[in-house]
Sequence to fold (179 residues):
Amino acid sequence: MPLRAQALKDFYGGPIWKAHREAANATMIDSDNVLLLHPAAPTSGFFLESKTRPPEGSNEIRTELIVATIYYFNAPVDPGFVEFFEKRVKPAVIGSGATILAFLVTERSENTFPALPAREGENAFVWFARFDDAPAYERYLAALTQSPRWHDEISQELARRLNREPEILKLSPTTRSLL
Fold:
């Protein structure tokens, strides 16, 4: 968290942000709904090292859709839920057409950069999936809802464990996004 604080201080106090903040802020509908997260398992974070960013000035139109699904709990996410996700949920959603990018849990540390407020007191598990486009996401939803395993087992187990309905956020990558 101290490294995060310094990196954010350097970024928001630096010349790149100052030069591009208006354009960057124009792409954000809501920047106030923030959760601090960390990987739920050693290999569950975003792995972008092998990705290549499109060149500056690129005007490629992106069709991909990134979907963040947030599961809320009454207490911190336990290892049993992470195992349930890895062994039951993940195979079902992959089999229905999703590409899992990462799955994360609430970071319990103090927000070390208060200029960017984060929600506190949340117990969340967040997973990110990639789809080629919006119709691919709709096909995924149809396949998932028609899956007897999802309907009869997984969704019931999720309903038992969660303290409210999942929150689903649909995100469009910017032209130069590594996602």
